[in-house]
Amino acid sequence: MEGGEEAWYWQMKKEIVWSVSAIVVSFMILIIWEKLWLKPQRIRSVLQKQGITGPSPSFPFGNLSQIKRIQSHFFNNNSLSSSSQPEQWFPSLFPFLQQWRKQYGSTFVFSTGHIQHLYIGDPKLIKELNRAKPMDLGRPTYIFKPLKPLLGSGILTVNGPPWSFQRNLIAPEFSLLKIQNMVDFMEESTKEIMRKWERIIEESGVKKMAEIVIDDYMKDLTADIISKACFSGSYAQGNQIFAKLTALQAAVAKPNMLFGFLYLRILPTKENKKIWKLEKEMEQLILKVVHHRKLQNQSHKDQNQKDLLQMILENTAYEADNSSGAWGMWKKLKHKRETQKLIVDICKNIYFAGSETTAVLLTWTLVLLCLHPQWQDRLRAEILEAYPNISPHCFHDMDKFRNMKQLSMVIQESLRLYGPAITTAREAIKKVKVGEMVVPKGTNILVFITAMHRDPEIWGEDANEFKPERFEGGVSNACKYPQAYLPFGIGSQICLGQYFAIIEAKIALILLLSNFSFSISPSYRHCPFYKLALNPKYGAPLLVTKL
């Protein structure tokens, strides 16, 4: 009997294990089925009932095969990078979106795997998106997962209370009053670039002229400015951080991550190991800057130093608890780790957003002024009138910036044609209404900014032409639908540093155009491409002449 009871016991145990395993597997299958099939079907059903159609998806990859086929067909039948046809590049940006817009209209739905994208190209709906609350439409999680090593959980990637906290922390540091105190940094950094260019021209052997690939210098310039403005005396280390950031950006950037294509960051591949190494090195550099500032604060040095880094430290300062023992120590260690991570992530986002976008803006503006030299002459004349003698600290008068209308027009037109951000996306955190359209929870809304900025129905038949005069009466008179002008994003999550970027660009252009003239180099190849921003694929070599 004992032997029989033991056999019965093990049989029952085996059956219980199998039953539990079957339940767990069934539960996992249900979760996967819900995520990969039921949820996408619900979203598409709600949109289709409202008359919103799009290409038919296939399970489980959605429209990925059509996307690949359209892109392959486009690139096999088109040659790019022609300097004689400078606008030939534009159709190469997501040709599947441009084809589907012709087929299905300005609003349609498509899928990449289980992710459902609602493309919106109707300016009237864009106006409604601008009114949406950040708690209704947030940052899409599928885009920023691959960018975690680059941006962490900073303001560019988070939603809800973490976003609100970081926004309230950062926004005051980019007010016009604070920016006015930063203009000397902008002037100082630009003059350093000018001195480098003068040395290159002297060494070139050609009288007063040299070919200079300006895009890297523009990135050095904006990185130096953001380091000085936000991290004061730590700007030397800031430049080291930016070098790591640039390398990390190159390693993680994938054009198709905008649509949720799969990138496995957990596998120990050669590429992923490089990303992990750069991420760790960048974190160590930032924490070194933070440690140095804390030592300064403890020794009561630089008591009046109130830059962004200081604000971050003061607002994240917290004594975990007065409780003693192991529990109190654990809480303090946990808070210290969380605080360090928050500081690192905020700094990453500030470096990326504060340097990359403005560098791209300056690069394309100078290229456009080379392609349209009459506007280069007009700006130089306006600068000479406003600043007949440029002297140190002469840029504190904000009224002069506002009165330089032609410079503003050129920057606005440059942002329209070659804005750093080519798309903006939002995820419906809950069911929301956009105008009369109901957008189900989980839907990812996509706006193709570059297409909006070049739409003849919005800007007229000359939409692809460089015509700064269209902004003479402001954005409201430049196009049919002013809400379709989106160089700094959309809605409440619009770029916090837009005024900083514009003033920074104006100071740099005033100084550069006052001291140099620019023309296109014969080696220049016009081929904009997307790599987290709209960059010149083959660089921007210009002929720079000292005036």
List the helices and strands and how they pair.
Elements: H1 2-48, H2 64-76, H3 95-104, E1 107-112, E2 115-120, H4 123-131, E3 137-138, H5 141-144, H6 148-151, H7 160-170, H8 176-180, H9 183-204, E4 209-213, H10 214-231, H11 235-252, H12 270-298, H13 308-316, H14 325-371, H15 373-386, H16 398-403, H17 405-418, E5 423-428, E6 432-434, E7 437-439, E8 444-448, H18 449-453, H19 456-459, H20 475-478, H21 498-515, E9 516-520, E10 528-530, E11 534-536, E12 541-546
Parallel strand pairs: 2-8
Antiparallel strand pairs: 1-2, 3-5, 4-12, 5-8, 6-7, 9-12, 10-11
Helix pairs in contact: 9-10, 9-21, 10-11, 10-14, 11-12, 12-14, 13-14, 14-15, 14-17, 14-21
Describe the structure.
The protein is α+β, with helices and mostly antiparallel strands and 547 residues long. 57% of the residues lie in helices and 10% in strands. It is built from 21 helices and 12 strands. The protein has a 5-stranded mixed sheet with strand order 1-2-8-5-3, sandwiched between helices. A 3-stranded antiparallel sheet has the order 4-12-9. A two-stranded antiparallel sheet has the order 6-7. A hairpin with a 2-residue loop joins strand 1 and strand 2. Helix 10 packs antiparallel against helix 14 and helix 14 crosses helix 15. It starts with a helix and ends with a strand.
